[in-house]
Amino acid sequence: MSFQLRREEVLDGERLKSMLDESPAHAAQAILMAAREGVVDAQALLGQILLDGRGIAQDQPLALRWFAIAARQGHLMARNMLGRCHEHGWGCATQASVAAGHYRVAAEAGLDWAMYNYANLLATGRGVSEDQAGALSLYQRAAELGHAKSMNLLGRYLEEGRVCPTDAKAARDWYRRSAIGGDFRGQFSYAAVLAGEGNIDEALVWLRKALAGGNLNFLRVASKALLSATDPKIRALAPAYVQRQAELEQQLKPL
Predict the structure, then answer these.
(1) Which of 44, 115, 154, 166 is at 20 to 30 A from 3, Cα to Cα?
(2) pTM value?
(3) What structural domains and CATH numbers belong to the chain?
């Protein structure tokens, strides 16, 4: 089946995004055409679908090229994705220092995701000198912009009193906001606070949400924490985490 592409579909970046949900293959065709027309949002989208193999054959080196084209035109998420590619070796050699440079540019321009990614490198000393205060500052800036993952990490700094005064009340609030914002780690953190307050039933609600959205690395750590939980209701949820972990591990095995 073929589609007739309208001119506005080719040039409208927002329309292209909605098309990805409707028909990935149709969207990929339109995105490619728009990218060649010079539509910067389409160039960034093309990089993403090439990276993911969504509606088009996966091609990480080509994704990197399109991210670079869009980044040169000032597209901040494309700049951030260049950082991601260099951090994880998608289509290029892994170079955390190069990734840090891309993240820093986009972070300084106000992109919350870049603030978060650059803060992660600063917090762990990858590609840059470790700078916990700098990481905290970026997490806070991103959190205040509504970035749910940064909210969770800001809460952790406040809970632990790492390079800042300990503030359990503020940490709880940031965990709650992160959980509501949909971050599975924030949901787990907030559940831990609720459990500590004795609010087990509400903690279980958030633990189930975290289970539904959590990735493999998270589940590996979280399942161990639940297995050692003191409350029997919370401990009883551990097998579901272990089962979901096994399912994701199975998906990674070659056919």
Answers:
(1) 44
(2) 0.91
(3) 1-73 (1.25.40.10), 78-145 (1.25.40.10)
